[in-house]
Amino acid sequence: MVKIRLARGGKKKTPFYHIVAADERRARDGRYIERLGFFNPVAKGQAERLRLNIERVEYWLGTGAQASERVQTLIKEHSNGGKPAAKAKPAAKAKAEAKPAAEAE
User: Fold this and answer.
1) pLDDT tens, position by position, for the chain (105 residues)?
2) Rounded Cα distance, 15 and 6, in Å
3) Crossing angle between the packed helical segments 54-62 and 69-79, to the nearest 10 degrees
4) How far apart are CA 38 and CA 8, in angstroms?
5) Taking the domains of the chain in order of start, what are their residue ranges?
6) Alpha-carbon span 5 to 59, nearest angstrom
7) CB–CB of 43/49 below 8 Å?
8) How far is residue 4's CA from residue 34's CA, in Å, rounded to a whole number?
């Protein structure tokens, strides 16, 4: 199966990730099928933090590839225009908020 995931690069203490489509049996930084973009988590100032070829990502997802959790978050961030995606509420908080509403009825 093909996975869309991060492949680490960069130096020690300075991570840099390529977003790649790779066979899931390959090593994290091993051989990949296609490079789809990059993610630089330590970008500052005018440095580009995320670049993604969304057309190719959609192609791979359409052919049955699975994106890792982190890559799914980055795809959402890319579609929001570079703003970080809103985090989902933990299940415990969602249940706690739902209880008072059910008791009010």
Assistant:
1) 999 999 999 999 999 999 999 999 998 888 999 999 999 999 999 999 999 999 999 999 999 999 999 999 999 998 887 776 666 666 666 666 666 655 655
2) 11
3) 130
4) 10
5) 2-104
6) 15
7) yes
8) 9
Which tokens is 71 given?
């890559």
| Residue tagged 């008072």 (tokens) | 100
How many whole angstroms separate alpha carbon 66 and alpha carbon 22?
Answer: 10
Instruction: Provide the CATH number for the domain formed by 2-104 in this structure.
Output: 3.30.1320.10
d(CA 14, CA 35): 20
The Cα-based distances of 44 to 40, 41, 47, 50, 82 in angstroms read 9, 9, 6, 12, 14
